[in-house]
Amino acid sequence: MESWRSRWKTVFQLFGIRSWLVAAIGGIVTLILIGVPTAIINNPFFFRQTPVRMQDYIIWVATGLLTGLIAGTFTLSAKTNASGRTVSGGFLSFLAVSCPICNKLVVLLLGTSGALAYFAPAQLYIGIASLALLGWALHLRVRDINRNYCVTPQLVEDTKVDTKT
Q1: Given this model, what pLDDT does residue 67 score?
Q2: What is the pLDDT of residues 57-85, one digit of tens each?
Q3: Nearest CA to 89 among 136, 56, 31, 53?
Q4: So what's the pLDDT on residue 79?
Q5: Long-range contacts of 146-149 (CB under 8 A, 24+ apart)
Q6: Among 6, 115, 109, 106, residue whose Cα is nearest residue 50
Q7: Nearest of 82, 94, 80 to residue 130 by alpha carbon
Q8: 47: how many CB neighbours lie within 10 A of its CB?
Q9: Cα Rg for the chain, rounded, in angstroms?
Q10: Contact between residue 89 and residue 139 where contact means Cβ atoms under 8 Å apart
């Protein structure tokens, strides 16, 4: 049985320049797609009414890294059902780092005070759940790539051929 470390090491050894380039671009695009509308990245289009917390930065960067690595694995052909987890993890990351009172759906459901009292503390757990989904999606990709690319050595019994006839 192969250890998880050797599986990951094997897959990332298969990464070529193309895979790392796709991973970098995927991570940067993810950071921009989450950072601009949540106003983690200062911009003239969106305004954040609550300050960005340290947990927001950590979840945001970890999401970019995991999503980039997942994107890089798609340069290696392997079929898996991890795409739903990737989309769900990305959406939850968006909710986890967004301004609690800027989210109109949350304010509609809980009101401004409810968003600050209940949704803001829950954002840490939403972020952890999003990173868990993204990590699981990456794990599934790595496992399936290993199955496609890495042949496990099989023990072959030596059979003696009887040359006496």
Answers
A1: 94
A2: 999 999 999 999 999 988 876 665 556 66
A3: 136
A4: 61
A5: 146/2, 146/7, 146/10, 146/11, 147/78, 148/76, 148/77, 148/78, 149/10, 149/11, 149/14, 149/76, 149/78
A6: 115
A7: 94
A8: 10
A9: 22
A10: no
